[in-house]
Amino acid sequence: MIYLDNAATTKPDWESCEKAQAYLTEKFYNPSALYREGHALQSELKKARSVLLSRVASETDFEAVFTSCGTEADNQAIFGFARRGNAITTLGEHSAVGVAFAELKNRGICEPRFAPLRKDGSVDIEKLLALVDEKTSFVSVIHVNNETGTINDINQIAKAVKTKNPRVIFHSDGVQAYGKIPFRLAKEIDLYSVSAHKIGGLKGVGALIKRKSLVLPPYIIGGGQESGRRSGTENTFGIKQFEYAAEKKFSALKADYERILTYRERFWELLDKEIFLRLSPENGSPYILSVSALGLRGEILLHMANDRGVIVGTGSACSSNAKNRYSKVVLACGHDERTADGVLRVSFSSSTSEEDVEKGADVLNAVAKELKNRMK
What we know:
Blueprint: E1 2-3, H1 14-20, H2 22-25, H3 36-54, E2 62-67, H4 70-81, E3 86-90, H5 95-106, E4 111-115, H6 125-131, E5 136-140, H7 154-164, E6 169-173, E7 191-195, E8 206-211, H8 236-251, H9 253-270, E9 276-278, E10 288-293, H10 298-307, E11 310-311, H11 328-332, H12 337-341, E12 343-347, H13 354-374
Parallel strand pairs: 1-11, 3-4, 3-5, 5-6, 6-7
Antiparallel strand pairs: 2-8, 7-8, 9-10, 10-12
Helix pairs in contact: 1-8, 3-8, 4-5, 9-13
């Protein structure tokens, strides 16, 4: 089986799992316990926090709060700080942000505003800034779009937003960026969401990176873990495995970036241009290539490819249960429904091989031609 849906989830890095195994079998204690075996785990969590944070931000200015996933981190940021006036995001967000913003209106919390996208999938910065006013409390802009791979310059955007309204709290969903593209968080960023299972970690572990000076309201309350900012017994095994997977991923970040970039371009080179239209920009994340098989149904092609041993996606896996047939992100880029209907997302990981690329492209060409011939 050739797996090319790594934007949805990656295979857990087994070396990191084995390294963290002791936290399942020997160091299984509750980190909040008073006895020394449990208390000792607090230093292990502190180390993991430091490793995960230091790769993208200054430990002097930022700290990390562990969550169960990127979606929870996004929700804690949104419902913690979008609490008055209006809150602004983009039409290119993951559903963890987009749907949460819609809920702000449903709950009568504040007015959600949505900035449009450019053709390449990036947010239209001028139009986003036009939405910012003296009543804006919160702005959230995705770092790497999970459907197209488009990269937003969040440092530049955050600076521009705060120039217009310094009181705004700025958040970014960094789930598809963390461990995949080189960057450091600027001083204008307040909150940043990450997830373990996108880089070889386990599902059920994420983190919300926050500016130390920011008082973070708890989203889940009860036991007072994570210094009262996120209750629930910490998943020590998952957190340590995330730490080890991140160490491994960041140590090879540059080499992986360059190699995967060649794979992405090779995959596009091999696809039949009479059938497929490229949606992902060349300057986007090398880990994501979105295309459209014009006049064909992407979901049908997905199943046909699956039957031949190749797994790809049609967009965000978290939106697969949505009633809307067409990707909101693709439509927001200005594409028509015919284009949106044919979308396939091919996404890579550090374990993707050149052979995977060659065979994957061959299978997509074959099933697309077969489906096209059936429709004649």
